Amino acid sequence: MNDTPKQSWWQRLSGGLKRTSSSISSAITDLVSKRKLDGATVEELEELLIRADLGVDVAARIAEAIAKGRYDKQVSDAEVKAILSAEVEKVLGPVAKPLVIDESKKPFVILVVGVNGSGKTTTIGKLAARFSAEGRKVVLAAGDTFRAAAIEQLKIWGSRTGAKVIASAQGADPASLGFEAVTAAKAEGADIVIMDTAGRLQNRAELMSELEKIVRVMKKVDASAPHAVLLVLDATVGQNALSQAAEFTRIAGVTGLVMTKLDGTARGGILVALAAKHKLPVHFIGVGEGVEDLSDFAAKDFANAIAGIER
């Protein structure tokens, strides 16, 4: 492959958002090529954007921007896509923030939360690889004690990335594991602790209280921990992501998002709705299983990919 990594990342991102962008693109072309822009066309464009999971408020804002000064005129689909991309970028720009590791916190403790199957453990492995490559000493805590497979998976990532893994038997108390991991990391002068947690549905009270306990116990070792709480969201779940973000933020104080599984089946528009509603920083997006498939979130690239604008 002689592609530059930037290009191949763009190809993966635009490919991952194909489902969203192609449905939006073809509908826009159908709408604007047949008639001048009138109230009915604008309304149809708005409905199309709501169906693409961009959220009611954002859809209304984009439709208004498209209509501005263009009523009863013929507009091109390229013009509409450019406005769509610009408006989406306005929503995403303020939340596109890298994860900043505060060097004064040692270890810097990252708690990773989310529902089952969202890609938490894989995301942790990719983050460990990234931080290790930056020369940081990383400790991984296998806090998903419900699933033996998650513990094993984390151990594999540990050996692959040179990170130390703190794990106990399946069914062990995850809060005491968190305590042990932060204590060990402190003693060894590690830079970062990343703790996995069991996948929990946001409507299961007992699992959510366990999450509260993990946070409480970590604070016994370091009152300022956890320093980052990352919510991993699966982009294929669409609207369900909104309630997940609300509930996990309430319980665990989410500080940032990682959006995974932008792999062609994704409903990428939901990230726009999330940004508009919850205003949580989006740190990373994942477009595949490989280590290099987790990338810092760039608002402009994402907006262009959703609008189906080729680079």
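The above is record 1. Record 2 follows with the same two-line structure.
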Amino acid sequence: MSRPGKGGGAGTAQPPTARWLGLLAVVSLAALVAGQVLGFTISPPERDMGHLQKILYVHVPAAWSAFLAAFILFIFSVLYLVRRQERYDLLAAAAAEAGAVLTALTLALGSIWARPTWGVWWTWDPRLTTTAILMLIYAGYLALRAFTEDAERRARWSAAVGILAFLDVPIVYMSVRWRSIHQVQSSPSTVDSAYALGLEVNALAFVLLLIYLVAQRYHAARLERAAEALREEAALASGGVHV
């Protein structure tokens, strides 16, 4: 029996990518917990909304991160169209999946906030409508990838939809100027100083979460591709033996 240490235990060690992703997961989770604790403990109830205001610490950073995911999707979609390398397609797909989750979270939290504030769960306000369109584009992107079998065609078509998703982001951002009942964009410079620190910490936490989600999904996609290649090699080898 081999002893752990320099010899026998090396085979069970985690690869560097897995260790890095594990560390990033821990840091992201710790930042999210710290941000929420900070937001709930140091900020007073808002004058008009009371404690409902604290949804700001998740709703706004989730929206910012969804926009950032769209930008990442745009960059890697363009890179794929220019260089036609699979890694850019996989990175774009990873960003789209993370962006879809964060956009759905943004819409859900917005509805929770709207019910006691506006009296309705949903209204066809410009900000809500354009954000819903972004969610539909993300969903269309993922559906396209799921139902297109040819890899090169899937990557090329997906890149075009990915660029379209990012083009909706400035429309969402500007939509509050179009007779919207949604409040103007919140940021550390526009909110009261009592809420700024909690918003900043949570914004950083959500960026870390986005990085983790994209990196984890890209890593999983690479493993899936490697497994597919091994299955194809095994099938070819098996076919050769039977002939």
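The two ends are 43 Å apart (CA to CA).
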